[in-house]
Amino acid sequence: MKANEKKFTRFLEGSDKHFIIPVYQRNYDWKKEHCKQLFDDLIDISKINRTHFFGSIVSIYNDDGDDLEYLIIDGQQRLTTLSLLLLVIYKIIDNNLLQTNVNKEKIKDEYLINKYEEDDKKIRLKPVKNDKNAFSALFENEDDYIEDSNITINFKYFYERVLKEEISIDKLFSAIKQLVIVDIELKNGEDDPQLIFESLNSTGLDLAEADKVRNFILMKENSSIQEKFYNKYWNKIEENTNYNVSDFIRDYLTIKERIIPNKNKVYFHFKKYITENINNIEDLLIDLLKFSTYYKKIINAKKNDNNISNVLHKINRLESIVTYPFIMEIFEDEKEKIISKDDVVDILNIIVIFVFRRLICEVPTNALNKIFMVMGREIKKYDNYKEYYLEIFKYYTQTIMIWYI
Description:
Layout: E1 2-7, H1 8-12, E2 17-20, H2 32-48, E3 52-62, E4 68-74, H3 76-94, H4 104-112, E5 125-126, H5 130-137, H6 150-163, H7 169-176, E6 179-187, H8 193-202, H9 209-218, H10 223-240, H11 245-257, H12 266-277, H13 281-299, H14 307-317, H15 324-335, H16 341-361, H17 365-379, H18 385-404
Parallel strand pairs: 2-4, 2-5, 3-6
Antiparallel strand pairs: 1-6, 3-4
Helix pairs in contact: 2-6, 2-7, 3-4, 3-6, 9-12, 10-13, 11-12, 11-15, 13-15, 14-16, 15-17, 16-18, 17-18
């Protein structure tokens, strides 16, 4: 590992450099308020005319190919945001909207593109997922912009601020050149990016629990496997859960471990679960994808769609999310042909009655958490549960109703 203090613009320079955001990274999510703070800081920097520390950028350096590739482990938000601002400066100069002595071609060729590459490889920064398309579109005509992307929204914010001339382009560009980073370069195959990532996260990197899980699953794989796992499994899991992957994984772990993880410690429970139980990551992803289809059926249930969906809609109206682990488990049991679709409908209807009575009797939610956490296990304690699943469930819920309600 090498760490050097470096001007941000020096970090960008190099005709054959490319900055790759790996698929395990989260989307670009800086908002206007973050961009406003950065722009205001640059105005202040221009007044005092001295260097300003802009954090660290952690990357894995890879020079096995024709180009110098830097896989960005930490710093993608800042790197992407400043690239947007540099692109704004270039476009405003190129369109002759403001007078300046800044050389637009220098900005384009030293910081934004590699002019010697083919068209689809020219742009140096390669964001992740849909961000890549949004960023690439900004180099084309405005009709091609992807309007609902944070990339485009922040680009337009900077565009408007620069045109207001609160600061001249010359002074703005000079201020950008005063930004200093710590360039932390990991050696491919020697340094462990996961350990670096966890260290950074412990000091305040604001990631969702699902972001940490995704990084843990994908980070140690080579880039081709990362792409495969992300496109074949993880992206579908995100879509199935309406991008609420953290809660889904919490429910998944509840089924597997019969313990409900703290919402802020899902990643650490997941890491422990993998370490102790999983030998093949792809098998895990296959299982996660399967359970995410059950989760999708629950959260997207619509009234009068079908019998199962209709009852699920009632459960969601009761806001009984504590039932989700057990409901996913019964969908799995149906898939394994242990119970029928009619059994599933009967079980779900009993859950509706059970939850409704809990609301009327004001039974604490934490009691329900524990009930549904172990319900599947309690049913399967009986040797003949495959033949009498529904009857055992009814007996169990009736007993619980008498005890708690």
